[in-house]
Amino acid sequence: MDLRDTPEEAAFRAELRAWIASNLTDEIRHGRFEESGREWSRKLYQAGYAGLTWPKEYGGAGAPYSHQAIFLEEMARAEAPSHLGVIGLGMAGPTIIAHGTEAQKERHLEKILSTEEIWCQGFSEPDAGSDLSAVRTSARLTLEGDHFVVNGQKVWSSFAHIADWCILVTRSDPESDRHAGLTYLLADMRAPGVEVRPLRQITGEAEFNEIFFTDVKVPVENVIGEIGGGWQVAMTTLLHERGTLGFALTAGLESQIRKLLALAKEKGATEVQRDAIAREWIGLQAVRYTNYRSLTTLMKTGIPGPEGSGAKLWWSEANQRVTKLALELLGPEAQLLNGDGKPGSHVQPGYWQHQQLRSRGNTIEAGTSEILRNIIAERVLGLPRSR
Amino acid sequence: MEFAFTQEQEELRREARAFLEATPEAPLADLRELGWLGVSLPEERGGGGLSFIDEAILFEEAGRALYAGPFLTTAVVLPALPEVDERAWSVETDGLVPHLDTVDRVLREDMTACVADGETLATVDETRPLGRLQATDCYEVGGDWELVRLRLLAALAVEAAGIAQKALELGVEYVSQREQFGKKIGTYQAVSHPLADTYVETELARSLAYWAAWCVAENDVQAPIAAAAAKAQAAETAVAACERSIQVHGGIGFTWEHVLHRYYKRAQGIDAFGGHGAVHRKVVAAALLD
Q1: In this complex, is the C-beta atom of A261 within 8 Å of any C-beta atom belonging to chain B?
Q2: Taking CA atoms, which of A159, A217, B188, B247 is between 20 and 30 Å from A227?
Q3: Torsion angle defined by CA atoms of residues B171, B176, B180 and B183, in that order, rounded to the nearest 10 degrees
Q4: Which CATH class is domain B156-289?
């Protein structure tokens, strides 16, 4: 057991920190994510920081997972925006690497890293949320057998309004039920018949979208895995979504708590609030070191340790508590749209109010807290299945 | 960065668990025989030449087994003594001394040691009875109480993690067997979800406790804040783990004959001993905000 960076890790951290200092401008930091994010993502790619853990043959750095963890920590420390291609890097790319054909790898992987292709995820549907096996978007194979015709609706799709490609779970066998008969497609978002409509959420902004597919042609060479074998492929995607998430979430929470501390110093805090703040800081250390334990297992065995399975669950509820604490520190001012964050403040106007409203989504997206508790109960604790 | 135990340490854990399962009431002398006292002392001082992390494994297993002898208190005091001895030790905090009836000496915050005379008090946690020291026969020991205090907090935190883990296992075992309305009650989410929460919290508590143990072992600058953080959260986790386990056990969990109340009382004893969570969070808040 040694909780310090190894000399090799320390060198990587120092080099990265220096790179961030000379490349991260205030314009990138505070600019609109979709524009400045693209520029920032390209810089990350050129410096070799996109796809750190991807194999070298696919344009990655072939680095150990510890580098990815350090990368996420340092990015959060510098308040840097994340890579615009989060779906591509964290979900589409790893799925293509695991199940894709050589042609698919050749066509997409490099472009995912360079942000030339932005990806979105077409999994959830109005009637298939937590229960992904209920998807109804149909993919009918033509008689010639050279392409599918896709019809249906997807929902809660981040980045769809700027995406070039979509990882799409469809039902290719209309007679099938639940997990069988699903096919995983790579769909071109510029194809005729694809329509994206933004979904305005409780924060007032639109991060998510609905995607409507009307007779959209998807060539058969865009199937990932087997026709009818989409469930297994989708599980790979979700494993990656949840597997690499812990460090990113912790890094985000760390930056949030740093802002909370600054706010508490500025506004003053009661004894009760100080106790609550200390509790959240302690919880942050707990989840951070739990991630390290899980990471050590991942590096030794290739599979993350089970203790990391609670990271998203804990983080989502912690982020809700932390943002609410901030509103409490701000007092009635928190209700003003441009309230917090005077000139020269550490946050943008309306920051905490926006963050608090946004945090309500944290316990719903990427696996609701109820689903995550089911997973822990059944797969980690081995309790009898509830369904 | 490597946050895992070595194979030797995992082996030590297996041995400790097997020994304590077979002989949960072994006298302290037997533990001394096994080399469990002074594990982290250098060999030339008669110790095991290992680290506080190895000791932490033993504290965790002692908690899991509800070991009732003055093991933890003796083990945290030994490295502070100028001469290592064969006595059983305890410490006095907030005017109370755990295991006063079974130890030979008591170390106090001013680094004086006293012969363990005094009154043993009826205590909720029967595995760690408290007493009030009659400090009549005392002598100077010298050295730094802060090191003893940090070892104590970190040791209590890992012990709490061991208790939380056992309470969780008892709950999982019970709800996997007990049937009501024609189903195993563990299939009901109102029953399984609190256990999932206990799992998450127990792993978090364990991470904090190991972090604190590592900081103490390495004399890291973060040791004071890590020990405070770990003690605060791990103790509360152990209490909550026992409460949820009692709840999912239903009536049987509320009986004197079931072992759970003994874990619950030990957890509450740990929470109270050396300061409740709020006391330690006050220290953490001051470090962060003042």
Answers
A1: yes
A2: A159
A3: 150
A4: mainly alpha
